[in-house]
Amino acid sequence: MTSGPDSLPEDITEVTLTRIVLLCLTPPALVVLGNLVNIVNSFVLGITTFDYSPLEAAHDVVITVLSLAAAWTVHRRRFSPRILIRVGLAYCVFAALWFSATECLVVGSYHSDPIRLGMSYFSFTMVWVVFFPAIVPMRSAAAVTTIVLAASTAPLMRWGAESLGWVQFSEGSVVFVTIAMIFSVIMGVAVSNVVYQLGRSVTEAREMGSYRLEKNLGSGGMGEVWSASHR
What we know:
By secondary structure, the protein is mainly alpha-helical. The chain has one domain. It has helices spanning 10-24, 26-44, 54-76, 81-109, 113-121, 124-135, 140-163, 173-205; strands spanning 207-208, 211-220, 223-230. A three-stranded antiparallel beta sheet has the order 1-2-3. Strand 1 (207-208) and strand 2 form a beta hairpin. Helix 3 runs antiparallel to helix 4 (81-109) and helix 4 packs parallel to helix 7.
C-alpha cells in the first residue's frame, strides 16, 4: 500500500499495521477476561454459570495461538505492507468465526437463562464487522469481501449448530441475527468506504507534481522535511 495509484501514505500504512496488531490481541484479551470472570464467579462468589469443557479450552487455545501468531507476523514487518494487511483481513474473518463459535458454545454451556437469551439475540460479530473496517482502511472490493465473509459466520454457524442439534437458540433468534447481520454489513461497508476515502484524500493532498509526500521526517522554524516518492 505504499506504491501505486490507489496506495495510502507510508505513515498511514504504518498506523494501520499497528492497529491490526492491536486488533489481533483483542480475542486473547477477551479469553483471559472471560476466564477471570468465571474463576471469580466459581471460587469467590460460589456461582457456577459455565461448564468449561475440553472443547471450550481447545477453542480458546486455538484463537490465542493464531491471534498471537498473526500479531507477531504483522509486528515484525518481514513482508510487504500489502501482504500484512491481507493477513489482517484474513484474521478479521477468522476472528468473526471464533466469535460466532463462542456464542454457540456459550448458549450451550451457560446455566443462566438471561445470559442464554441475551446471547441468542446478540452477536459480537455484528460489532466486529463494523469496528474492524473503521480501524483498518480497505478498498471497496476488499471491504465487501472481508465484511460479507465475516458477517456470514454468525448466521451460518447458528443455522448449522441448530440443524445438527448441538445448540438450541431462542425461537426466531437465528432469523433475527441474520437480518441484523445484513444491516451490519451495510454499515461496515459504508464505514470502510468513508475511512478509506479519508486516507485517499490525505494522499491526494500530499501530491506535488510528479511526487508524492510519504512521511514527515521532521519540522522546524523554516518548514518541514518529508520523504517523497516519484509517481
